[in-house]
Structures are given as C-alpha cells and as structure tokens.
Amino acid sequence: xxxxAVYSTxxxxxxxxxxxxxxxxxxxxxxxxxxSLARAxxxxxxxxxxxxxETAGDIVVFGGDLEVAxxxxxxxxxxxxxxxxxRVFSNTGALMQRIGRGGDGPGEFRSTPLIHVGPKxxxxxxxxxxxRLAVFAPNNFAPxxxxxxxGTETFDAEFQTIQVVRYLIGVVEDGFLVQYRDAxxxxxxxMDAPEHTVLKLxxxxxxxxxxxxxxxxxxxxxxxxxxxxxxxxAKIPFGRDAFxxxxxxxxxxxxxxxxxxxxxxxxxxxxxxxxxxxHDPVPVTDDERYNWVSAxxxxxxxxxxxxxxxxxxxxxxxxxxxxxxxxxxxxxxxGALETRWIVVDLEGRIQATTKLRSTIWLKVVAGNxxxxxxxxxxxxxxxxxxxxxxx
Length: 391
Description:
There is one protein chain. The radius of gyration is 21 Å and the shape is globular. The protein is built from three helices and 32 strands. Strand 22 and strand 23 (251-256) form a beta hairpin. By secondary structure, it is mostly beta strands. The strands form eight sheets. Strands 2-25-24-23-22 form a five-stranded mixed β-sheet, with no helix packed on it. A five-stranded mixed β-sheet has the order 3-29-28-27-26, with helices on one face.
C-alpha cells in the first residue's frame, strides 16, 4: 500500500494585486503565429567575441549559472556561481577588474550576487544570503553604500510560509524593485496552498514602501512525502513560471508563461495594456513523461503523472531591449538544436525573429548588441558571448 502524497501548486492564471485591476485595451491577434512570423523581419546575430573559451587561450574560465548586466559604455558585469564577486569586462571582452569578495564588509558578499545597472551606470548587487544591497560607483566601481533589507522578509503564521528575497528587478526614483518568493515550510504548511512571487518597492533605506505591486503564482512545484521519509520538493518539468522585468522608462512587464500574455503597467499601479501573441503549444512527449515519472516509487506514478503538463510553456525567457521591445525565447521540442526568439512590440506584433543554438540564452539586448550565455559545444564550458544584431 502506498503512503505517498502529492501536492501540486500548479496554477494557470496571473493575479495582480494593486487596487483594482483594470486592463487597458487588449491587443487581440487575428492572425496565426505562422502568418506573424512570415511578416516579421529576420534578425541575424553574428558573434563578436566570447569569454571563457579555454581552448582559445582565454585566461577567464567560468563555473556556471552565469548572469550578465551591461552599462551604457558596453562594459559587462558577470557573476558566476563559483565566484563570490563580480567580474567586469570591457566592451571588447577584455577583463578589467573584479568587484567585491567574500565577507561581511562594505562591498563584500556571502553569496554570488545578482547585478543590476541602474541610472547613471551605478551598479547594484543583491546578496540574497545576507539579504542586503551593495551599491558601487559607476566609474571606478568602488563600494558606496550597503543597505540592509533583511527586515523585508516576512513569516506568515497562517500558511506557514516565509517570504524570501529572490531577485532585484530594477532601480527607480523612489528605490528598489525587489521580487520575493513565498516559500513553504514542509510538514507545517498547507501544501495545497499556492506559492506566490511578489514584487515590492523598497525605499533607499531598505524599508518596504509598497508591499505588493504585483503578485503571481510562482513556479509550478510538486511536494511529496512517503511514510517514514522526509518530505521532498521538486520543480515540475515543463511547469509554468512567473516573469517580471522593468523597462528603461520604468514600466513593469510581467506574466506567466502558460501563454504569451504580458501585462504592462506603471509603478503607481495604473495598468497600461495587455499584450497577447498567439503561439502553437509544444507537446511533452511520452518519453519525457516516462523519464520523469519512472524515477518515483511504484504505486505513486499515476499521481505524479497527473501533475505533469501535456505541453511545454509558451516561452522560456523574457527580456526587454532599450527600444521597449519584448524578446521571448519560445519553447522548442525535445532534442531541438535551435530555438526561436521573437521580438514583440507594444501592440503585440511580432516585429522580428531569429534562431539561435538551443544552448544560447540571451541576457541583455541594447543597441545593436545582444549578450548571452552559452555552453561550449566541444568542452562543455560556460561562456559569455556577445553578438552584433543585423537585419
């Protein structure tokens, strides 16, 4: 007899909590995705330089989980899970210097920081383990200030969840936009209660000035527990996730990737519009379903199979360029060597499209440059790659 319980947090709709949600004019699409792509401009991304290629004699070698930010001079700020600090590269890929190190002093980190380049090229780094923000000068990258935000993490006694710092979304005139995750406490919480991701505005002192700008269901998770064993938690393969981004003119873009439907509104809560783009769902294959479900004990597999989606998410990545366009990486079938990226305008039209190797994840698009991370196909080493965009 099985004593194995499965609790899925799978949800399919976004929830905005800011006063009353009043959608602007939704952009309805009356053409298929195939027609939209046929009308779109084809972008070509040509590699300009790469960083981390040991076989080419590069002295910089990365460990993985790379994140990239870029300032107005085209300088790159790269974080790496194996380095507690930030490496700075020129706009040609040459190593310039390193910011920060392990520790608790000014400009030091307990964990690999999350970077954001704010107004006037000031560099902000979020240390999620220490729950604090470090601020660095835009020219010499010297530490300027450290802001404690530990008081913004909260505990919900009713639902037995803790709200923890997750990402730094952006910097605006009134402070910092920080994304939080409602994390459940296993064996104590209501496992059927949904987990959420929440966006808050913190002031320059690190206190909450707007508690819930956006609230959405978080990544689809599954919780399971067998008799006599500790509970376990795992991401549901092909589960839906929440995405948030801040545009250069300080508009919030957000949505869940069960469909291509992006909400846009200003920081003060005034909803501007909803962008919708048609997409063709990509099925999850029987082999993919079997490979995941078969890892669980006999007698529980039907339950696990019931929470596994039949299709992949509509998209896997969302970023904004400096022309207020949305770049989306569409989901691709199992084993695909290439993935399609689409570039969508504020009317929901697909303006451009391009195909890249499936190992490439774009992180920043500014001007005629796109910066991404990739994996060396021969050595398997993590890379940072810069591309020039042409039509």
